[in-house]
Amino acid sequence: MSPPRIFLLSPANCNGTRAKQILSPKAQFSLAVELRSRRGAMLGDVFAFVSGLYFRGKLTYAVRFAGFDGVHVITPNAGLRRPDTYITHKALRTFADGDIHHHNADYRRPLEKSARALLDEIGPDCDVVLLGSVASPKYVDVLTAIFGERLKFPIDFVGRGDMSRGGLLLRQAREGVELPYVPVIGAVLHGARPPKLPPLRGGAGLSAPRWRA
Predict the structure, then answer these.
(1) Which domain holds residue 165?
(2) How far is the CA of 146 from the CAs of 46, 135, 153, 168, 192, in angstroms?
(3) What are the b/e assignments for 61-71, b being 16+ CB within 10 Å?
(4) What's this model's pTM, rounded to 2 decimal places?
(5) Would you say residue 125 lies in a domain?
(6) Which whole number is the average pLDDT over 71-88?
(7) In a domain, 207, yes or no
């Protein structure tokens, strides 16, 4: 049976400080060593480290409500990939060199190809939820052309920054309460900043899952 929805996660920033840390040949923490191995490290683990709270929130939330098979990550030049896909040190460097822009064919064409394949796979009754920015055309223009009104996003994202979105998703995952979704097409994508979230209490359930073969 097809799941009621799948989640598409926007990528981590592969040019930031934490990306440089994990790409350093001198890095000796376990994930960096794993990334330099022949097999590499899992995409979800790497992006959760590189991005921190925001991607960790997206990944934890998506797995909580769609399971492992219902989560797909947008990459800078390799289309959609499951978070348990192994990537190498070289692949992450290539991601860092990629330009995530809807006019960049090296980014757009692989995303279009894998999104169309996913559309054929999920059938007509499965919604597609984008956990990422809908205020920029870099994801929306490509994905709405393929999924149309089936492409949705959490309405609670409007007005929030990345850190607030990550915190919100972690809370909802821990509480087991899914957010409401609306179609991207026709939605109001900008709004007033919502009230600040209360502090998280306790650490249980706040870590992104790690996959192991």
Answers:
(1) 5-183
(2) 28, 18, 15, 28, 30
(3) bbbbbbeeebb
(4) 0.89
(5) yes
(6) 97
(7) no
